[in-house]
Amino acid sequence: MKTKNPDDQPLRFVPGDRIAVLLPLPLPGPLDYVLDENTHVAVGDFVDVDLAGRRRTGIVCGPGESGLAKEKLKPVIEKRDGVMPLPRESLEFMNWCANYTLSPPGAILKMMLSVPAALDPPKPVMVCVLAKSPGPWRKTKARQKVVDYLGANPPDTVTGLAKSTSVGAAVIRGLVTSGVLETAAVHGDAASLPKPDPFRPGHDLSKAQARAADQFQAAIGAQKFHVTLLEGVPGSGKTEVYFEGVAKALASGKQVLVLLPEIALTSQWRERFKHRFGAAPVEWHSGLTPAKRRDTWRAVQSGQAEVVVGARSALFLPFRNLGLIVVDEEHDPSFKQEEGVFYNARDMAVVRAHIGSFAVLLASATPSLESLNNVASGRYQGVHLPDRHGGALLPEIEVVDMVKDGPPSGQWLSEPLKDMLAETFARNEQALLFLNRRGYAPLTLCRKCGHRFQCPRCSSWLVEHHFNKRLQCHHCGYFTARPDICPECEGEQTLAACGPGVERLAEEARILFPEIRMAIADSDHVTSPGAAAELVRNMERRETDLIIGTQMIAKGYHFPYLTLVGVVDADLGLQGGDLRAAERTFQMLYQVAGRAGRSEHPGRVVLQSYEAGHTVINAIKTGDRDDFYRQETSAREIAGMPPFGRLVGIIVSGVDEQAVDDVARGFARTAPTPDGVQVWGPAPAPLAFLRGRHRRRLLLKAEKDISVQPLMRHWLKQNKVHKSVRIQVDVDPISFM
Fold it and tell me: What is the distance between the alpha carbons of residues 474 and 735, in angstroms, rounded to a whole number?
């Protein structure tokens, strides 16, 4: 798609020209329209057009090429003058993502225009400014604080001033009434955001940190595409290293994007950033209000938002002058989106940096095999921090063989772990119990007839949530009240909860340690960034003694008095036949173990395992991370699996099971057969029934040097699919559910 002139300027169009307009819809491509006598546009401009009688907003993406007679084309209704054009890099990124993921470009554009209200003219905001000629006024300490603040900072709203100066809003309104302050209406785009100071001194760095920071800053200063993988044991100070890179980019006048895998991580990271740079970053995640998302989108596009920290969708914001991307915890599977457009934000971040010719940093204590392989092949630069910062030692690790030393039936904490918990609480230190399973119990059944409670919309068991007395599906959200009698045999008091979840673990801990202060950290209890911030504050103030959590609490956090980590079921992630089961389990256990002893207090870790001799458990116990990666890399290379081969998944789904099977078999009959390509399936997906739809999977495996996209396009074209059946393509899948 041609989008620019040879001089690198966007193509421009005049009245009477035929133009292609891309709409944020899953259409095969752009649609042609004609410009009326009063409209001039360029590639990237937003325009309103008529589609099937409805007014829609799209972007100009090039000259019209449909071949349809011009007199049959609809005219563009109008150009959106109240919003800046979509940047050229965003357009190139959109087209690249569409081609790679085999998605309609309109589906990518929809992610970029996730806040339609941002395209409307901004509403004025009332801000307070110092009056030019204030009359006499009564001075108080609080009032003077506000006046001094405005003398050194941009105008702000009453609410913003009250928050920044820690005074009541009534004080500020009193200053307005007294004529000391005046109010002025400014557009949202003109309301200044606090600016991070790149020259503000940071923490003292160790020699290893300083060397890593120098290398990273040099890569940023070169102002060309460069990928750095920053490895380091938990607590080694990776964040402080890449903060030096953020400072370098800001000093060069560039915008910075930092991607985090969990919005729960944002609160503590945000405070660290504010302490380092004197101002908080702009946030982007699902927990923001619509108004905040609108303002943030426009601030990013105008360049006022200098540093953005957010979830994977932040990658599709319309950055005007992006000069650095940091992907923290780059190995984390939550960077992969597995609905709508299937993409991996880590990989797309590298692509976005290549398009913009700037540096990207991937940081992790447990890098993905893909990233490690890229370092080994010379595509990425590797930087390693081998020691914890400030002299802190790595925790001691003990494995409890649950076959020999497991607790009595109905209990989940072994005697060694209970003893260590008691010792930890006696020293007034904090502990973490990790179990990557939400709810009270993963299964509820009848002891009399064997009836199991299953989701009516999914092929999964309903999880019992004890505190709110309901059974819930964690895949589709279906829930129902927990009955008192069995619906199958009508037996009374015959229902039993099988296996533990974090709520059941909390119940056992309360019985053992009734005096301690406890918190549960999972997505059922920590439902917003505010709740996550409160959880962090309670830990930092030592108002929580024991935290019981899932993967939400396993990475990124720094709690100086957390000295004991107990992993209740270290084998949980090893179950099933997932290609990455061993790698993911190792990463999860290594990360959660790294929460212990991150300050001057030494840490201990207890792994409860029924497979105490497993390769993963041994690797965690011995701390020989490199040996584990060598074994895992060798196994993948022999099997030709990623990163030494290519995979593409096809998911066929629909309400009519027979129609789904017919389509899936049709795909199998027309599967591509060139050398170096294999196709497996169709087979029922592990979750063969999800949200009321039957699901079948096929998997294409190809040698690494084979381009899979042309193969897939040809394969998809060969199969006519009824509209009741949905086809989803997952290039580079990391989950096979």
Answer: 16
